[in-house]
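User: Now give one protein:

AI:
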Amino acid sequence: MDLPGVFVAGVGLTPVGEHWDRSLREIGLEAITAARDDAGGLAPQALYVGNMLAPALSGQTHLGVLMADYAGLRGIEAASFEAAGASGGVALRQAYLAVASGAVDVALVLGVEKPTDQIGPAVDAALAAAADADFEGVQGMTQAAQAALLMRRYMHEYHVPLDGLAGFSLTAHANALANPNAMYRRALRPEDYASAPKVSDPVNLMDAAPVADGAAAILLTRGEHLPDIPARPRVQILASAVSTTALALHDQPDLLGLAAAAESARKAYAQAGVSPEDIDLFELHDLFSIYAALSLEAAGFAPRGEGWRLAADGAIARQGRIPISTFGGSKARGDAAGATGVYQAAEVVLQLQARGGEAQVAGARVGMAQCLGGAGATAVTHILSRPEGS
């Protein structure tokens, strides 16, 4: 059947964690193999890799060629993309554009990270490189410090109590219980959040996602090449949008507006012909709790200053108005840095195909994934759907 549009043919996910005994290429191959098996063995003509940390921590560039060769795909088009925490989302967009244009029939997207190739200060420095090195990095600015500045300002402007963001972490951990790939499969209690040590005041340990190893892969194709897998609903990418703003936090005109996230979401809604009311689940980038609140507001699910209330009143729970972090998000699944955007999109696919197991969001037909690079300097939004009758 010739179906217009770009469809997901298969997905592959690896557990997020500290894989000391495995290499970057081995983790990546596991995800690629799983995605190809999921797609009935469909062979890609191009490979797009999203990665943030390999040059600094693994001493490896040229990841596209490395992974194509190691996966037995030597000779195909292959390239890697870096946009900090949004790297995987950018790679997915490039694959989407290649397939939608007709230049490529089947494209493979891989998000892969191996931060445990180094420990301690080396990892902190590599992560901090997502900020402006000349004006933020040189001052010792870290990701946690950026989040702390935003959280402090948010709490001040909107009179948010100290535990106002706790619901994001509690929800993520509750959802991760059903995810075999999650790093932390245990529930979080309010008292755990309240007693957690500070990472960068007011951000505490439970506000921060653990950065760890992991890989996720997705195969994209057009309708005429989509494998016929009985009882599996088709999933189509309705929209793919990227937006950017100033890299340095002090250069962003609206600190709490997440301008790139808002614009990326706006463009995606317009492409897909949907609105926030049509979205059944939202996989957002909760590297820190404050980004979850700001992302909900930027994407139109809550007015300015009200995003935190969605966590407090249960609206973001699996059975709530707008479920988020349905497999644990970065907070409990673990944050695989540049691979995050691919994990998110693959998790949306599983939800739309009713393959979420105990993590399933009932009746999900339209899902959105949005990943952020740096302090929201890059935002990539994808909207996926299960077409009527599928």
Notes: The chain has a mean pLDDT of 96. The first strand starts at residue 6 and ends at 13. The radius of gyration is 19 Å. Residues 6-119+211-225 form a domain with the Peroxisomal Thiolase; Chain A, domain 1 fold (CATH 3.40.47.10).
